[in-house]
Amino acid sequence: MSNVLEVSENYDTIIIGGGIVGCAAAWALSQYNLRVLLLESNNDITCGATKANSGIVHAGYDCVPGTLKAKLNAEGAKMFPMLAKQLDFPLKVNGSMVLCFDKAEHSHIEELYDRSVKNGIPEVEIISAEQAYQLEPNIADGLYSALLAKTAAVISPWEAAIAFAENAATNGVQFLIETKVTNITADNGLFEVFADNQKFIAKTLINAAGTSSAYIRNFLAKDKSDYEEIIPQRGQYFLLDNAHKNFVKHTLFQLPDNSGKGVLVAPTADGNIIVGPNSENISKEVDFTTAEDVKTTKAGLADVLEKIAISVKGLPINGNITTFAGVRAKHSSKDFVIDEPFPGFVNALGIDSPGLSAAPAIALMLTKLITKKLHPTKKADYVATRRAIQRFGELSFAEKQALIAENLKYGHVVCRCETVTEADIIDAIRRPVGARNLDAIKRRTRSQAGRCQGGFCSLKLTDILQNELGLSEEKIWSC
Amino acid sequence: MELLIIGGGPAGLSAAIKAKEQGLADVCVLERNSHMGGILNQCIHHGFGLHIFDEELTGPEYAQRLIDRALQLGVKFMNNTMVTDLDENRLVTYVSPNGAAQVQANAVILGMGCRERTRGALRIPGFRGRGIFSAGTAQALVNMRGYVPGKRVVILGSGDIGLIMARRMSLEGAEVIGVFELNSFSSGLKRNIVQCLDDYGIPLHLSHTVTRIVGENYNLTGVYVAPVDETRTPIYAQEEFIPCDTLLLSVGLIPENELSKKAGVQLSSVTGGAIVNSDLSTNVNGIFSCGNVLHVHDLADDVTLEAYRAGVAAVDFIRNGTKISQTNKIAVTAGKNVCYVSPNFVQPNEEIELLFRSDGVFRKAKITVKDGENVIKTLKRRVVAPGEMEKVKINTGNMKGCTVAIETE
Does B128 sit within 8 Å of A291, measured CB to CB? Predict the structure, then answer.
């Protein structure tokens, strides 16, 4: 590490963490006349739990009434369909079911229904096994009853986060990736945030650091007795080829247990089938999630398959295209912790499920804590909408013709499995908070996300990354 | 348009050449890459052309022979052209930097080749970062881009590309620690095992697999391997860690039939390729299939021979309509010890070469073609193996059924 300390200009707010919560907070703050900076330790935003979760906007019936989770899930779920239009990210309202295979457990279905009433969730009903089989013929035999929640949706979590970030950047929020916060001090109402050889100064901080959020918060703790703790929980998943996209239409849950909502099977917003997660506590000595934390394991994957066999029959597991794992940041209270433990330091701690569903509402709550302090005015030139990268493959013939006429790079299909063009890839790189590596391109365009898993297109992407950013082959293949 | 050929690899080029040689005026090859030749362009090793050109060529040389001949005959090439849709009426939709277009073809030949099976399909647990490549992707990296992705290499699967890459990585100065194959036999050609592994002192571990992948940050640091039992289940008690920075996968090829499905072409669940008649026509009128999109071949020369037949048949179809009788067609089935036979249906009274693969290694093998209990033909082989495609010529006469089987002593 260099001894030279580069000191940045002052910010009103620094957001630590570029996951769905940090990006949504950046989006929410960007409507105000505030100087906002977001710091992300990874080589792209959305690299933590945001890129590796079930991608569900939960209807909100299962949170314990009265908790922050119950309140913010309901609010977030209500916001998402409108946000998906405004910020142009994929969301499909597909409805969800909780499946009950044992008459003796039907009381749990009724309890969930009661919670839905208390939490104010619309369009929830208990249905018979016959009704459920009619909707989902691949449900396993022996179903007793089910809870149907029609407002549940699936989204692409990383595309949602990227949409928030791009819109925030358009409205002036600065983003710095590969900037790992190593210390924070508070002095005279200002915070000093240290990251390697850089120092950033801000009036307020938002801690949205996911699994590292306790680590970030504890920099300001008086002593160890004041420390917060995050219990990292790994969940592993299978993702099936979109050839099987009609295997289920609804998100199918099992009855929740102590460790969470159990193993689900659902269509993804991008047309695959997702199966998972299991739930394992992982021992945590380090402060940042490592490759070891997000590995998949034989036992974990076997556990997922064993459990999903309870819900559905004939899962086409031979159509699996990838397995992955994510780490959820659970708090011992089992609720979200959104507070201001030190004046001007605002926390979003313990954002595990339903963190994605609640993210826009969490962002508004964080923003309220900031604006109460800074009393900012609203921007006159605020841009409320954002346009997504084209989904070339989904366009009509005439639309494709028009695009190619405008830019011939639309006529160059780089990714055959998901029909992504060179123009889309360049767009992903040149956008605000643009892609800087192969995985970042994948999350923005779906190139490499299909059945060949980048076997063909990754080499063409390498050419484009070299042309656009001047990266070396070595660099491209080592991050 | 008379004949549209989708894919400009050995299958598409060879079919185009033969169609032109039949005197067809209008033959066009659509190729998604900037160059014709397909995967041959990255196969810079020799061993191509022994049957077709009677000399030993590299992949790019083999491709260039086909390209030159096709151009000489007046085949129209459309590079950088991606077919996005195909329907049962042979309406072909494609995009290229020249625009999006739709063309109605009198006949279509599918020559899209295949893709490699991925790590996801195997569901190997562990590290999910960089350093894990399919063998063909690594081959393109080394041969097309001059970039060698690692220094210590483990190869899982003994498909031909994996074997070729074992040698290639060694020549580039990497240490290839070994090739690990789940089956008790290699799925590659014997000549590749000799020339790519034995000659370079690279061990082939049969009945072994990679059980876990380990890495730190963005880098692969090693793999665990273990022997497997007769049911191909790993014996975890004998797991062993091998430090490496690169894992290459050569674990099977999958015909790329996404377009074929859109046109309603019926596919075989065994080969993943189209179900075809003896003239390589599919169930969809005027759509033919050949090369690795039909079933995976060992040799480009065999692809060319098959594609020649598709070219002839497509021209015949354009001129005279189909010759295939649905009522008289004879189903060809894979009997004992046979994995699959191509084609799936033959016609009465025709001379036809059946291509097939065994589902294991058999020594002193007797190959039989039977119509019910009637033996039509027998052949003897010192050894048959899944890695080497077998051929048998028959005259179908008035057969009612046709089963190919392998018997051992």
Answer: yes
Q: How far is CA A265 from CA A147, A262, A312, A380, in A?
A: 15, 10, 8, 45
A263 interface with B at CB cutoff 8 Å: no
> A454 touching B, CB under 8 A?
yes
Tell me the mean pLDDT in the region B233-237: 97
For strands B204-206 and B330-334, give the pairing: unpaired
| Spatial distance between the Cα atoms of B150 and B173, rounded to a whole number of angstroms | 10
* ipTM passes above 0.85: yes
Using a CB-CB cut-off of 8 Å, the residues of chain B touching A456 are 115, 137
Does the pLDDT of residue A200 top 80, yes or no? yes
Pick from B116, B126, B218: CB nearest A295: B126
Provide the 8-state DSSP code for A287: S
Per-residue pLDDT at B111: 98
Q: pLDDT at position A284, please?
A: 66
* DSSP per residue, A93-108: E--EEEEE--GGGHHH
Q: Measure the CA–CA gap between B338 and B324, rounded to whole angstroms.
A: 26
Q: What are A46-94's pLDDT values in tens digits?
A: 999 999 999 999 999 999 999 999 999 999 999 999 999 999 999 999 9
Residues in chain A closer than 8 A to B213 (CB atoms): 295
* CA distance to partner chain B, nearest, from residue A303 (Å): 13
Q: How far apart are the first and last CA of chain A?
A: 20
* B99 contacts A404? CB cut-off 8 A: yes
A106 is catalytic: no
Chain segment A410-451, per-residue pLDDT in tens: 999 999 999 999 999 999 999 999 999 999 999 999 999 999
Tokens of B55: 């000399």
Comparing C-alpha atoms, which of A302, A306, A235, A312 is closest to residue A266?
A312
